[in-house]
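Batch job 17 of 40 flagged for manual review because the log was empty.
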Amino acid sequence: MKVAIPTEYGQITQRLENAREFTIYDVEIELVQTKEILPLDGQSFSDFLLTQGINAIICCNIRSASRTLLRTRRIELTYGVTGAADDVMIRYLSGECLGTIEENALLQLEQDDLGDITYSQRK
């Protein structure tokens, strides 16, 4: 499983769409096997996901269009998370509840205070 976290100087970037690099963790049996920091280098976010074989993304803020893209690619999304990427990855692997998790199931449309349509898990 490959987990991508948009980072800058080891910290999670404020908005996924503004990321210039991602820290990629290759995880097997709840242990990080490899870690590498990869720049987008002019690739679109969509192409980057495909070429790297990303299965999950952990980020801070994300636009609804990007959430839809991840949903169509069946990529697990955890958003609303801040801090150092390595610390967040340790918490993620330990099973700690981080931010809001979308696992591409039981989703419904909601309208937020700004009028943007977003998706959230049904409770």
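Reviewer: the log was empty due to a logging misconfiguration, but the result itself is present. The CA atoms of residues 60 and 112 lie 17 Å apart. Unflagging and moving on to job 18.
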